[in-house]
Design a protein that fits this description.
homodimer, alpha/beta, 4-stranded mixed beta sheet, 11 helices, globular
Chain lengths: 299, 299
């Protein structure tokens, strides 16, 4: 079984109090697809400009990511530039150039429309809906989002929520969406908007899944140093969906284990800028952290 | 086996954006002893003034708390008055009257000095040390603290840390103590100050234990509404120590399960002002939440 990933393929220029890294490979689909690639073959749908470095195409290839759905269009690649403060919880967008992503409207190949697992990684909800329109009876559809879309495209997000199985968002976005600061109280209100499963990401504090089996409180893998949290949420949902796509049996049965894999891929993502650390990771590294986390929550 | 609890026995006047409750039973030793009483017989060491309401003495009795070590002195009971903001994470002290606690210097009974489990609940580190000086070969000594003591009595806290088995503090206090914002990085530095076990409380995000078996990531019991978090940390450590004192076998073996009991007693504490909810709880309520939490972390 396999996984379709649609989202942004970007160049990220990231500043922290300690370092500055220009034009790294970034974007929600890049982080998600690389994280998913440890478990399954991801099929990436996205657009890059003619400035997109060849070395990043090679990187996708090295991770076994199918690029049939990656269009190289005339113009600039989506470019995000941001700055983190000392505690890494606050970030500021310095500049955004949408470039070729602005009017990107993909037409999926017949093979892609039949993929069972669909990850609508963070991008404009109209683009997410466009891809979902083309899918034929997917088994499990997950959407991620960000505060920007809740601000400028709320109706489109609400419409999408009625069509997906699982919605992934962070705690401040959950508060923003349903105007409720308490995550536990916000979750039932999000379910009422459509999705059977809701996952609230809480950064270093882990995540909470809500679904038919009740709540699942998932730990984050504890890190002594976070170099750059950009893409951690995408890496989380990518790892989770890659794992799900690789497993037999019901989503219900595998989702918790998938979230733990997502926690682990996200932890690697945080340990260096962009995809620098994640692309050095091997499967035994992931298995080791999964074992460690399993021990850390057992009583 | 049984538990000695020393700390403050106070009257708390608590304001939240929704309600105001004057002169409730409060103080670290009150919250800790009531939480511990679900598992073992706590022996309370503390001081109250002649204004201390008889009904609170009765409350201690109803919970089977031994009051041989509770002195009623001439003067005012320790009184704390504080206010919470909307999100309940920020609180402001409006007024503090130390009263009889200011010069309290207990002399323990011979029976008390031989108790195996010792909880030095949050109070002046000199008072904690005074009690510890009198103990004969305790099996397990835990100390809690608060930001105030790290500010005004840091040398006394540091001295105490060399004499205890386990130190419990919240995440902001951990940062303050070792000047490190990252909890995972702060923990080894706290171990270097003395304690074999370190527990960092993170409120709604649960807690982290560090000890010879590595890290344990413990969940908080998820609550839709927090009425008043005052005393939750005391209730946490009280529940934990009560459970430990009730169990056979090594502390190492029982500590994780104890922390889960502490999470549960703390969750009840948060659901109403002061001890209002905790004093209505029965053992099956605690067992139910422990079962629920067990399911919520299982994958």
């Amino acid at each position: 079984m396999s996984l379709l990933v649609v989202g942004t393929t970007a160049l990220d220029s990231i500043k922290t109090p300690w370092a500055e890294n220009p034009r790294l490979l970034g974007g929600s689909a890049s982080h998600a697809a690389v994280a998913a690639s440890f478990f399954t073959r991801p099929h990436l749908v996205g657009a890059v400009g003619d400035d997109f470095p060849r070395k990043y195409i090679n990187l996708y290839h090295r991770h076994g990511i199918d690029l049939q759905g990656l269009q190289q269009l005339s113009g600039q690649t989506f470019h995000w530039s941001g700055e983190y403060e000392v505690n890494m919880n606050n970030r500021r967008t310095l500049d955004t150039v949408l470039g070729v992503i602005e009017n990107f409207s993909p037409t999926l190949s017949a093979a892609h429309t039949r993929l069972p697992y669909v990850l609508l990684a963070n991008c404009a909800p109209d683009l997410q809906a466009n891809v979902l329109d083309q899918m034929k009876r997917p088994k499990f559809v997950v959407a991620d989002t960000m505060d920007l879309w809740l601000n400028i495209a709320r109706p489109a997000v609400l419409k999408l929520l009625k069509r997906i199985d699982c919605f992934v968002l962070n705690d401040s976005e959950a508060s923003q969406l349903v105007e409720e600061d308490n995550v536990v109280a916000a979750i039932p209100r999000i379910h009422k908007l459509g999705p059977k499963y809701v996952i609230v990401k809480k950064g270093e504090h882990g995540s909470v899944l809500s679904g038919p089996r009740g709540l699942f409180i998932a730990p984050a893998y504890p890190l002594k140093k976070v170099a750059d949290p950009t893409g951690a949420g995408d890496s989380f949902v990518g790892g989770m969906m890659g794992y799900l796509a690789s497993q037999k049996g019901s989503v219900e049965k595998n989702l918790r284990a998938g979230i733990v894999r997502g926690s682990v891929t996200a932890s690697f993502c945080c340990e260096d800028f962009g995809l620098k650390k994640t692309t050095k990771v091997k499967n035994p590294d992931i298995a080791k952290r999964v074992r460690e986390l399993t021990k850390m929550v057992n009583w």
